[in-house]
């Protein structure tokens, strides 16, 4: 499966075209809209999210609630476009008409300067409109389709926030994935630890008051993956590597880890590797899950645990030092409306990109035309893996 996205943050709409989704998958706008709404929430979001009411239009590839196997086109309207028609319109403007809201003072940490140099844009709006995290809207839409594939195969995905602005959540929890999902859903910062939640909200308030922004860490957990998805045979077949790449592709993400991740550097092997057990009901299991569900680039059948770190959003109301690219004079960077913290929303994006990679790998490995065939192949594979 693959998909492309298109659209500018303040342009008319965002679009994704998804190819390779098997025929016969149950899919309705409601599956996607629920995910879009989750991404819009989260303490620390700015005013833009009060303008947008993200709703998907399914324009191809689905008929009577079921996928056809043909490309699926999904679009989401940018309501804010009505305020930006003149600035973001596709039509040429008259020579004597001034382009409004030009940006010539790049924001450190954003794509502004590098993108402007690369594409030769003197107005850096031409860069920021596409580099904006608004694009994650349709990545979440594509992820919702992937989640639907996983769900039909009995695979569940949940995400939560484990750190914001240096406030760490207690992550020793033993709830079921469903309880974890529900708790995260009920939290304004998608955090399971109610003490940490309050401190995170305070940290966001403080950052906002100071015109600053803060980042954090999100975690995605996936239960029910069959064993042996992905492969050790070639670098680009390693599924854990694809997950790391997917996490790093989310706007403002600077790192990814799987299982104990960087912590493995500090532990002896006896405290890292997960001992192997077998019982008749579950087949092979592990005493621990330090590997985060991966060995040799393949799933172990234990829960997949992926974390990603998001840097603070680079658009600051207390702007950092920059240079005006026209005058070359030192200036404070441009001030644009922004969020003071988007980590809770980013955890929904992280779920989407992880779901996408896992669903793609399953579809590739277990036959990719018809959902029923994939279901049957996965069922048989689970059975033979248990008795292996
Ligand atoms: C973003 C800036 C803000 C955010 C935006 C990402 O948008 P605006 O410039 O319109 O205020 O709200 O995020 C979204 C629009 C979204 O849907 O998540 C940026 O510069 O990356």
Automatic annotation (TrEMBL):
EC annotation from Swiss-Prot or TrEMBL: 4.2.3.5
Required cofactor names: FMNH2
Gene3D superfamilies documented for this protein: Chorismate synthase AroC (3.60.150.10)
Domain of life: Bacteria
Coiled coil: none
GO molecular function (one): chorismate synthase activity
Known catalytic reactions: 5-O-(1-carboxyvinyl)-3-phosphoshikimate = chorismate + phosphate
Pathway annotation: Metabolic intermediate biosynthesis; chorismate biosynthesis; chorismate from D-erythrose 4-phosphate and phosphoenolpyruvate: step 7/7
Binding of NADP(+), residues: 39, 45
Chain sites annotated for binding FMN: 130-132, 251-252, 296, 311-315, 337
Keyword annotations: Amino-acid biosynthesis, Aromatic amino acid biosynthesis, FAD, Flavoprotein, FMN, Lyase, NADP
InterPro entries: Chorismate_synth, Chorismate_synth_AroC_sf, Chorismate_synthase_CS
Function of the molecule: This reaction introduces a second double bond into the aromatic ring system.
Annotated NCBIfam families: aroC, PRK05382.1
Family (UniProt): Belongs to the chorismate synthase family.
Known partners and oligomeric status: Homotetramer.
Protein name: Chorismate synthase
